[in-house]
Specification:
The protein contains 16 helices and 16 strands. The protein is of the alpha+beta class. The chain folds into two domains: about 240 residues, Bira Bifunctional Protein, Domain 2 (BirA Bifunctional Protein, domain 2, 2-Layer Sandwich), CATH 3.30.930; about 100 residues, Anticodon-binding domain (Rossmann fold, 3-Layer(aba) Sandwich). The longest helix is centred in the first third of the chain and has 18 residues. The protein starts with 7 loop residues before the first helix and ends with a helix. The structure holds adenosine monophosphate. The site of adenosine monophosphate has 16 residues, from strand 6, strand 10, strand 11 and helix 12.
């Protein structure tokens, strides 16, 4: 688990606010589920996933309740829906940390942030398209271009059940071609064997039966509509029949966003799909759901690779240098901040030289200097710090003209710096 320090933290916050902007424009409202819930909430996700069986931070609290830090947020959203019974379709988004006891490495941490959306209570292929398109739009807003959308359908639960049977028969007949780990997975959930990225499994998986052969007419129609909708929005996608996503609740559409600049073991930026039964298992009515979760860390790594979405500039506009004891700086910074300027100052009555150094370090466009002469004369000195700095360009202005003089000087300095 890491500390996120400035200026990275500002980048994280902007990431979340860009995401919020994209999904709020489509009518999604933010849900803030608790960081910790009853263990049972997360166990509903299914016992065939490492997330549930191995990676949860769970413990007994002081009241003897068995609780866990959330490893993801879909289960919490479904629990909240079952509990509060909002009107449908319920369109929500979330942003925040999850916890998984994984082996930390680049792009994989024990506390990691996700942003995501879920829609509960509507089973319409055009909703699938809306959800996918919002993920796509978000990547576009970040400036990412090397993102691939993988798409698949798992069909209806019965289609999927027949497919799982066929897969199991196929894999059992060819056990020699599977790694030990995949054989264990096969016992739990044959579908998840397709998730294996181990080279030894690759050949057998390549020739495995394909889900498309098992679609019912309804499932095929749903999938066709999703593809047509994506075509209508000019969103490119690649059908990947191996994309099954681990969870038992998934049906119909599944998708994944792949970062093409990232190492293949760690290149899933995010993914999601349609699911059924999760709300029901948490005490609600039968309710269809669809959503996705996108990992912040990996998406930012992809941004670094593509040289987009840099940390925002956190430089201040103005730095106040006060050699009369600091009280003038207190008043001046308050006035400037009130006027909407980003403003900092020095403390501890440092020397003029040391305060000017701090002003330079702050990245400020302009310094306001006040010494005893200025104090007596009721003036301040406005000195540009950026661009071709020329001491002759500094001006002494009446104290009452402070705001307008500073605003002008900041605008001028920014103009010069970008010219
Ligand atoms: P999942 O909830 O497992 O489907 O993961 C969705 C996305 O969250 C992944 O594509 C990653 O971008 C991100 N993610 C999952 N686990 C981690 C982790 N341990 N560290 C960082 N990002 C993660």
């Amino acid at each position: 688990m890491r500390d996120i320090l400035p200026p990275d933290s500002a980048r994280w916050r902007r990431f979340q606010s860009v995401f919020a902007g994209v999904v709020e424009s489509a009518g999604y409202g933010e849900i803030m589920p608790p960081l910790m819930e009853d263990l049972g909430v997360f166990q509903r996700i299914g016992d065939a996933t490492d997330v549930v069986t191995k990676e949860m931070y769970d413990f007994d609290d002081k009241g003897g309740r068995h609780v866990a830090l959330r490893p993801e947020q879909t289960a919490s959203v479904c629990r909240a829906y079952a509990q509060h019974r909002p009107a449908t379709p319920w369109k929500v988004f979330y942003a925040g940390p999850n916890f998984r006891y994984e082996k930390p490495q680049r792009g994989r941490y024990r506390q990691f942030d996700q942003v995501g959306i879920e829609v509960l209570g509507a089973d319409d292929p055009y909703l699938d398209v809306e959800v996918i398109s919002l993920g796509w739009e978000f990547y576009e807003k970040l400036g990412l271009e090397r993102v691939q959308l993988l798409l698949n359908s798992l069909g209806e639960p019965e289609d999927r059940a027949r497919y799982v049977d066929a897969l199991e028969i196929y894999f059992r007949a060819n056990l020699d071609g599977l790694t030990e780990q995949s054989r264990i997975t096969l016992d739990k959930n044959p579908l998840r064997v397709l998730d294996s990225k181990r080279e030894f499994d690759a050949e057998l998986i390549a020739y495995a039966p394909r889900i498309a052969e098992f679609y019912s007419p309804d499932a095929a129609a749903h999938f066709d509509a999703v593809q047509q909708g994506l075509d209508d929005l000019a969103i490119p996608y690649t059908i990947d029949t191996k994309l099954v996503r681990g969870l038992d609740y998934y049906r119909h559409t599944t998708f994944e966003f792949v970062g093409l600049t990232l190492d293949s073991a760690q290149n899933a930026l995010g993914g999601g799909g349609r699911y059924d039964g999760l709300v029901e298992s948490l005490g609600g009515p039968p309710t269809p759901g669809i959503g996705f979760a996108l990992g912040l860390d990996r998406t930012l790594l992809a941004c670094d690779d593509e040289g987009v979405f840099a940390a925002p500039n956190t430089d201040v506009d103005v730095f106040v240098v006060d050699s009369t004891g600091g009280r003038q700086a207190l008043r001046i910074t308050a006035e400037l901040r009130n006027a909407g300027l980003v403003c900092d100052r020095a403390f501890e009555n440092r020397s003029m030289k040391s305060q000017m150094k701090a002003a330079d370090r702050s990245g400020a466009a302009v310094a306001i200097i006040i010494g005893s002469n200025e104090l007596d004369a009721g003036t301040v000195v406005v000195r540009p710090l950026r661009g071709a700095v020329d001491v002759n360009k500094q001006r002494e202005v009446p104290r009452r003209d402070l705001i307008s003089a500073v605003t002008k000087a900041v605008l001028l300095a920014v103009k010069e710096a970008t010219a």
